[in-house]
Specification:
single chain; alpha/beta; Rossmann fold; six-stranded parallel β-sheet; about 40% helix; globular; glycosyltransferase; Glyco_trans_9; transferase
């Protein structure tokens, strides 16, 4: 599972960057987003307003689900809706259009086909047109946009699919993309929002975020830990040190070092997950945290399986936070911004620790030991 590699800084398209090119890449990304936003707004002004009542989903045979987002956590957050729809409509054939992580996250769900859109596809019109052509040929009975982002690429993909019934969230300036709409949810937490959206279209939704792992995936993860910790190993504590730096979500690395040292003195096994964004900082992470089992270059589902075999996961507000909740592992989520009631785990799935200074190791350790007991 661990492989040798040469760390390089990469941009969103996977192209190697040197320091002098990093600012240029950020500028080009902002320019690309601005051009796309202007194009989509102009397209929206040419569309008709849809005011049809919600259709009877129980009478349909083929439904397209759409949520195009490239962030891991945001894709995981639509799983309560996917789960609710599949349970409520067992005779419906579902297909899905999502971001780059969609196939890995939704593997195991009863979905006939999952189409993915990568970041680079948004600036290559022929790729999007090819996808739209495929969707239109399928002649779905309905398409449901599983996001409240009504000016997103996914919303326009829903419109372009040509489906007779297109369902989505009502925009502030009116419904211009969908034939039928539900109101913007009033709930604070994103999981509650997606449940509320489903209930508005007549689908009971109660599930949390969930990734369905195969028994063989879990067995491989367990064997991997036995190989490193011994056959009689205690479940380890997992630590993810990353977080989106530009959003201010990354935690104080020295705090993780203090936590790791305290766990070592108690002879508690640790697993440190090194994600793609932490590759270039790996040596620094190892130097601060010290002796532990480091996981890198694993696939998303390999990481999910390993996380599922951990006793507890400690992580800043990040994709791995959502992933840990989705595989059922107790999650200690570290927030430095007061938006934890919107994104963070709730009991019995885990606990949020809010600390603007990002240094509250005492409370983290107390909760860790409580969960680990």
């Amino acid at each position: 599972m661990e492989k040798q590699y040469t760390p390089v800084l990469k941009d969103e398209f996977g192209l190697a960057l040197s320091g002098k090119h990093f600012k240029r890449s950020s500028f080009l990304r902002c320019l690309k987003l601005s051009i796309r936003r202007i194009f989509l707004l102009a397209l929206a002004r040419m569309m008709h307003v849809g005011v049809e009542p919600l259709p009877n989903l129980y009478a349909m045979k083929k439904i397209l689900l759409v949520s195009v987002n490239q962030r891991l956590g945001n894709t995981i957050l639509v799983t309560p809706a996917v789960s609710a729809l599949i349970k409520a409509l067992p005779n419906v054939q579902f297909c899905f259009v999502g971001g780059r992580h969609a196939k890995s996250i939704l593997e195991g769900y009863a979905i006939k086909q999952i189409h993915t859109i990568k970041r680079i596809d948004t600036v290559l019109p022929h790729r999007l047109w090819r996808l739209i052509t495929i969707l239109r040929k399928e002649k779905y009975d309905a398409a449901i946009h599983l996001s409240t982002a009504t000016n997103s690429l996914g919303a326009y993909i829903t419109y372009a699919s040509g489906t007779r019934h297109r369902i989505g969230c009502m925009r502030n300036d009116g419904n211009i993309l969908f034939t039928s709409v539900f109101k913007h949810p009033q709930s604070r937490h994103k999981v509650d929002q997606i449940r509320e959206c489903m209930q508005q279209i007549g689908i009971a939704a109660f599930d949390e975020r969930k990734i369905i792992l195969k028994p063989e995936e879990q067995l491989r993860a367990e064997d991997f830990f036995k190989l490193h910790f011994g056959d009689s190993f205690k479940k380890p504590i997992g630590i993810f040190t990353g977080g989106r730096q530009k959003k201010g979500k990354a935690w104080n690395l020295e705090s993780f070092g203090i936590i790791a040292e305290n766990l070592r003195t108690r002879h508690i096994p640790m697993v440190i997950f090194i994600g793609p964004e932490e590759m270039g900082n790996e040596k620094c992470i190892q130097s601060v945290i010290g002796s532990a089992l480091y996981i890198k270059n694993a696939t998303l589902r390999e990481v999910a399986a390993l996380v599922s075999k951990c006793k507890v996961i400690v992580t800043p507000d990040s994709g791995p936070m959502h992933l840990a909740v989705a595989v059922g592992t107790k999650t200690i989520a570290l927030f430095s911004k007061p938006n934890f009631d919107r994104w963070g785990p709730r009991e019995p799935y885990g606990k949020v620790i809010f600390d603007k200074s990002k240094t509250n190791t005492k409370e983290i350790l107390n909760v860790l030991l409580e969960y680990y007991a």
